[in-house]
Amino acid sequence: MNYNKVVLVGRLTRDPEVKQTINGTIVATFTIAVNRSNKRGNDEVDFIRIVTFSRLAEFVQNYLTKGRLVLVEGKLRINRWQTSDGQNRTTPEIWADQVTFMDKKDDVPIVPEAENEIEYDELFDNNDNDEPPF
Amino acid sequence: MNYNKVVLVGRLTRDPEVKQTINGTIVATFTIAVNRSNKRGNDEVDFIRIVTFSRLAEFVQNYLTKGRLVLVEGKLRINRWQTSDGQNRTTPEIWADQVTFMDKKDDVPIVPEAENEIEYDELFDNNDNDEPPF
Amino acid sequence: MNYNKVVLVGRLTRDPEVKQTINGTIVATFTIAVNRSNKRGNDEVDFIRIVTFSRLAEFVQNYLTKGRLVLVEGKLRINRWQTSDGQNRTTPEIWADQVTFMDKKDDVPIVPEAENEIEYDELFDNNDNDEPPF
Amino acid sequence: MNYNKVVLVGRLTRDPEVKQTINGTIVATFTIAVNRSNKRGNDEVDFIRIVTFSRLAEFVQNYLTKGRLVLVEGKLRINRWQTSDGQNRTTPEIWADQVTFMDKKDDVPIVPEAENEIEYDELFDNNDNDEPPF
DNA sequence: TTTT
DNA sequence: TTTT
């Protein structure tokens, strides 16, 4: 009974950083600048940290660079942690499950999100009446 | 450079229908009534057809019933097809990749959507400075 | 207890059409082609009809043209109607409440969506302790 | 060319707090707990701060209470501020433009979001051919 | 009926 | 064809 979805379009503030977890999973992180569309200028920005894993992280590593415009879909996480002197801190970040280019540069592969890989027209026998395909 | 996302909350108008594709994939479909929140009454409704596959379809088959309130996330598809006498028709439907209960009945399992199954706290060595965990 | 949200990114298949309602409200409609990102080519498309009103319709009329890439946010409506010989038909369309360019051409005004027009920094007295601004 | 949208479903951790800005605008804030749907238990939660203004804030003040399940739609803001001793801090929050109940208690008014208030059926002259209403 |  |  819970739901958490974020969709953002913005530009990379730097090239992504890539690390590996202790069990070998690749993790790519980057920050996007999302301008707040206010009428008189564009001085307000949110800098939002994006985290990607595995196959999506490899895509990010290989193709995303500073300045590119991307659409990011994922979940908002509010990470809670402590400083060395025991103060509580909070870091927001998006765990992305989809990243799509919104600008064209060189040709770049589409990153297939995790989903049903079924071909629609192969699904059913033809029907020959006035009903929709399902 | 394309994106397609739909999020709906509404009630099942009937129990789901379950079929199988010619290669054995299970397909469960149902319609939800999504009321348009107009101020003076609630007479306007959109009846929206939802299609689910595989594991999600099994979940739908096992737990969704007429009248239940669900959140559905997926993609809008406008299917084009022809009647037997050659007329063009169009059927909108949502190919869901997530279905979540919004009402409580008996206890029911969470359906895990396809996603990164990584445990956050196992990811990295502890850091002992004033930096966030990544 | 209902919710209906659609977010799409796609290209205009033609220039918008503009009409007026019987009481003078301007209505601009257009269709966007939203490609389904399948791996081996890009042959599958959804053609989705978008409807805008009033101030947003004027923006659409003035700045949107065939081929432009836009992000559209709105509600899915399944309109039910009858043909002249009494057959039931159904037409899906998106009633947009936000349209944003995703490609750059000439400079074009931002269309302010209906929202809270409050300036953040004018909101409160300065606080001079360790608390966030609210 | 920027976009920022968040949709969350979760429960209020406390009753909302209500303040006023220096120019009289009412501001209601509250925190929702959004559980991460992990398979083996439900120990992980994100506590996400929600900010509402004006009419929506009044609705929040009058009807939302601790424990209620709500759907919140809005924009993610990463507020940057400084502590009294000059340290930089960051506070994430959602500026909501829609809040909807997801549980039923007593009957409660629908809060109309800012949008086009046009009645569909009053829009056009009747058409009596095989075309959809627009 | 369709966009790149 | 329709849910609360």
From TrEMBL, chains A, B, C, D:
Subunit: Homotetramer.
Protein name: Single-stranded DNA-binding protein
Gene3D superfamilies, per the entry: Nucleic acid-binding proteins
Keywords: DNA-binding
InterPro entries: NA-bd_OB-fold (IPR012340), Primosome_PriB/ssb (IPR000424), ssDNA-bd (IPR011344)
Domain of life the protein comes from: Bacteria
Cellular component terms per the entry's GO annotation: nucleoid
SUPFAM superfamilies xrefs: Nucleic acid-binding proteins
An example Gene Ontology biological process: DNA replication
GO-annotated molecular function: single-stranded DNA binding
PROSITE patterns tied to this protein: SSB
